[in-house]
Design brief:
heterodimer, A: alpha+beta, Rossmann fold, Dna Ligase, domain 1, D-amino Acid Aminotransferase, Chain A, domain 1, eight-stranded antiparallel beta sheet, globular, B: mainly beta, Glycoprotein, Type 4 Pilin, OB fold (Dihydrolipoamide Acetyltransferase, E2P), 2 domains
């Protein structure tokens, strides 16, 4: 097993990895940019080293600085977390040159599976369905119509040179095909000077369902089942759950099998996620592979009882997976919401600032993976994810009730958070029935929503609190004058920075 | 202390008055069975006829307040019809010898200046605690503290003269 792991990340995921290290008796080494000196991952780690200015390209994305810290601190492994360099093959390459074990797949597996086009080719090679269609231009409309028939309507005609919906036509039956083809071609010609179009199956209201896999270095590849992440805002996941409400044991087996075939074909080792779209007829189509730990991994941990980060470390250390695929069946239900420092009432604009107070939810069935504390200033330089709130219960209903309850307990002042968004989603009838798809949330946000009743008793309480706050605002405003840095603190910081080239 | 609070087009008048030992809160002129505590920064526990609300305040850049309970969220505008304090962003500096009075009944918890000190407009002179909140009483003008008439720990009533600034 490793002695000391460098964590090439920040925020809640760095904290998550530090926790795994501590449970395994492994020393953890954090890195931090100038604005992260006070961050919680620095406080919790066994060691911490500065790696430069706030912009990530000058700090968290600097492989040379990471390798330097690893050498000086005597690390024998590196965990990339998610984001930043986690899916960059240059990082595992640099690690192997530094005799550092990269906790993740090889650079080659990342390249074989990470890019969308390479992944699709590989998936087709092992008979895993991708969204049907062709990336080549249609030369013979009659052949294309025959292909559309075989794939089944509706289909989408798309301009090869296109974008922005120009040269795009939805075709719902055979009769419409030729006129739609003419329209799409001429529109593409007008818009892009290129009339070439190709066709792709149109997935109506697809759901996003992904399979978590684990692969050890001894040839065992297992599926840990699915997570559904159909609640997305502009392609960003907002709520994740397991199991998927539409899943059947049979479909789970088939999708898991497909995911394992893809991982094997790519020579994949460690934890990864194979993403699929699932249509209304339970057909699934490969989307892409995420060659890293996912933000939403706790959902799988809660229903399988496994610790994915510790398993990642064990796999990287050459251990065998201690269980067979067949032994894994999800128990109960888990659901995660991503709490961001952003304002849902103001177009989800980030809301960095100082956290003046905070109360964490707790109690039965609640887990909070968090990277913040009261008194900490959320920097404006990074993704404003504050915490992931995960609930689990015996049923989906119990899980949602717990999540709602925990969101009522969660309290942060000083910054805006997106909790109001979840309060809204978690009572939507469509969501409760799980009649959702990847565009569902964007559509929901277009609809006007009921604002809180200004005649209610709660509004009375709000008015009293607002008046009290107003009465005390000058003294509290006075308490917020920026603190001056003490000279010795600056001196210490400068010395630390000098140590990193 | 009296405030007008506007929420969603509806205006409430919230008034805090002192009654021997305790504070009373009235809403639109009607006394309430209510109790309020600031339990954490910008977080108030309000008991209203026994109903428990936890209310969080997030000021917006435009001066409005986002006020949220555990399940509701309101946008509030607060107006202070009888502004009594020296303005923090002192556009309106008082002239001449100024008497500083207690805006509310409470207890002097801290003196921030001594007699003879030079003070700027808006500078804190003393802190009065009321309703479990500390309020800094500021100088209405630049000048010199002529006298301080209270001491730390002293209870004061609304309108009591606390200090003179010239």
């Amino acid at each position: 097993m490793f002695r000391k792991i460098l964590i090439a990340n920040r925020g809640e995921i760095a904290v998550r990895i530090i926790r795994a290290c501590r449970e395994l008796g492994i020393k953890s080494v954090a890195v931090f940019s100038e604005v992260d000196r006070n961050s919680i991952h620095v406080r919790l780690a066994d060691e911490a080293y500065p790696i430069g200015p706030a912009p990530s390209r000058e700090s968290y994305l600097r492989i040379d600085k990471l390798m330097d810290v690893a050498r000086r601190a005597g690390c024998d492994a590196l965990h990339p977390g998610y984001g930043f360099l986690a899916e960059n093959p240059a990082l595992p390459r640099a690690c192997s040159e530094t005799a550092l074990t990269f906790i993740g797949p090889s650079a080659e597996a990342m390249e074989a599976l990470g890019s969308k086009t390479a992944g699709r080719t590989l998936a087709r090679g092992v008979d895993v369905p991708t969204v049907p269609g062709t990336n080549d231009p249609i030369e013979n409309p009659e052949e294309a119509r025959a292909l559309a028939q075989r794939m089944g309507y509706p289909i989408l005609l798309k301009a090869v040179a296109g974008g922005g919906g120009k040269g795009m036509r939805l075709v719902s039956n055979d009769e419409e095909f030729h006129s739609a083809f003419r329209d799409a071609s001429s529109e593409a010609m007008n818009a892009f000077g290129n009339s070439a179009v190709f066709l792709e199956k149109y997935l109506e209201k697809p759901r996003h369902i992904e399979i978590q896999i684990l692969a050890d270095a001894h040839g065992r590849v297992v599926s840990l089942g699915e997570r559904e992440c159909s609640v997305q805002r502009r392609h960003q996941k907002v709520i994740e759950e397991a199991p998927s409400p539409i899943m059947t044991p049979e479909l789970r087996k088939r999708m898991g099998d497909s995911a394992v075939r893809i991982a094997r074909a790519g020579g994949y080792i460690n934890a990864g996620t194979v993403e699929f779209l699932v249509d209304a007829h339970y057909n699934y189509y490969f989307l892409e592979v995420n060659t890293r730990l996912q933000v939403e991994h706790p959902v799988t941990e809660q229903v399988t009882g496994l610790d994915l980060v510790k398993l990642q470390i064990a796999i990287a250390a050459g251990h065998r997976l201690p269980f067979a695929w067949e032994s894994i069946t999800p128990r109960g239900h888990a659901m995660e919401v991503r709490l961001y420092a952003e304002d849902p009432e103001n177009n989800f604009f980030p809301s960095p600032g100082k956290i003046l107070s905070r109360r964490a939810p707790s109690g039965p069935g609640i887990r909070l993976d968090e990277g913040v504390y009261s008194g900490w200033t959320v920097p404006m330089d990074y993704d404003p994810l504050l915490a992931k709130l995960i609930a689990w219960g015996n049923s989906r209903e119990e899980t949602i009730a717990r999540l709602r309850r925990a969101l009522e307990e969660y309290s942060v002042t000083g910054i805006k958070t997106n909790t109001a968004l979840f309060r809204r989603i978690l009572v939507e009838p469509d969501f409760l029935r799980s009649e959702i798809h990847t565009k569902w949330l964007d559509e929901m946000l277009q609809r006007p929503h009921a604002t809180s009743d200004s005649n209610s008793r709660a509004a009375d309480a709000a008015a009293i609190a607002a008046a009290l706050w107003h009465a005390s605002r000058e003294s509290s405003a006075n308490a917020q004058t920026p603190e001056k840095s003490s000279p010795w603190k600056m001196e210490g910081r400068n010395r630390l920075l000098d140590r990193t080239p | 202390m009296k405030y007008e609070v506007r929420i969603g087009g509806k205006t409430r008048v919230v008034e805090f008055t002192h009654n021997s030992e305790t504070w009373r809160i009235s809403l639109n002129g009607n006394p309430l069975d209510a109790d309020a505590v600031e339990v954490a920064t910008n977080t108030f526990s309000i008991l209203l006829d026994g109903e428990s609300y936890e209310v969080r305040i997030t000021p917006k850049p435009d001066g409005k307040l986002v006020v949220s309970t555990s399940t509701e969220e309101f946008t509030c505008e607060v107006a202070d019809p009888r502004a009594w304090r020296g303005r923090r962003h002192g556009a309106m500096e008082a002239e001449g010898r100024q008497q500083i009075t207690a805006p509310m009944p409470g207890k002097v918890v801290r003196l921030l200046a001594n007699a003879g000190d030079k003070v700027d407009v808006g500078q804190g002179i003393l802190v009065v605690e009321a309703m479990k909140m500390q309020n800094e009483i500021r100088s209405p003008k630049s000048g010199r503290v002529e006298r301080i008439l209270v001491s730390e720990g002293q209870a004061v009533n609304s309108g009591d003269v606390l200090a003179w600034v010239d």
